Amino acid sequence: MTPKLSVINLTKTFLKTKSNVFNSISLHIDKGEFVSIVGPSGCGKSTLFHILAGIEEPTSGSILFNGQIQKNRKGKSGYMFQNPLLLPWRTVLENLLLGTDILHIPKKESSKYAEKLLQKFDLSEYKNEYPSILSGGMKQRIALLRTIIFHQDLLLLDEPFGALDALTRLSCQLWLLDVWQKYKSSIFFVTHDISEAILLSNRIYVFSGRPAKIIGEFKVSLPYPRKKEDLMNKKAVTLEKKLLKLLLS
Questions:
Q1: What pLDDT shows up at residue 116?
Q2: Which residue, 40, 101, 130, 150, is the most exposed by fewest CB within 10 angstroms?
Q3: CB under 8 Å to 165, separation ≥6 — which residues?
Q4: Domain for residue 241, yes or no?
Q5: Which domain holds residue 133?
Q6: How far apart are alpha carbons 163 and 52 in whole angstroms?
Q7: Is the peptide bond before 3 cis (omega within 30 degrees of 0)?
């Protein structure tokens, strides 16, 4: 099976500062797979996502979507940052439609689809509300829907729940799993939280400090659908110990 995303010998060096971010990184994500990266702060995870989204260019190496080399990557994936970045002067529905405005998709068509999506995930009652009245978890849900609305195939999620409290974070994690299982998207997820990576992922890549390299790759052998209690499973506890040992070595 051809991977949804392949990264081959990717290297990034910032020439002005002569800072080497990562060397010859190679990884892949299969279609419909949920893959996470864990690693120390500043190891280049976000830089990698900027490159995959077309915001930055690599120094060398190749990026393939569906087996095809992609030099122009802008608009080929949905990219969600830690901050929800909702526009305060737009309603929930209008925020969802922001990307469709940029893509010049007819408003009638996009509005109908966005409203259907809100209904599907029990958010219809908020469609005419402004972000200021929403909780942190609700803002993240809306931002996630905005990310996937016209980029369902490949999602890049950069610590989307990092700023949330523990209970809200868990709620959003389980909600994300529900969204993923409904759409079968390929998801590439950055987190500093080992438990979060285990709860969500099919596979986990472990990055070293700069210049980053992949120092581990682990399959998470827990069946879906998952719940918080699965983290107490013997397999999950063993995997967490392995990941911690690797990150702290």
A1: 83
A2: 101
A3: 136
A4: yes
A5: 87-151
A6: 23
A7: no
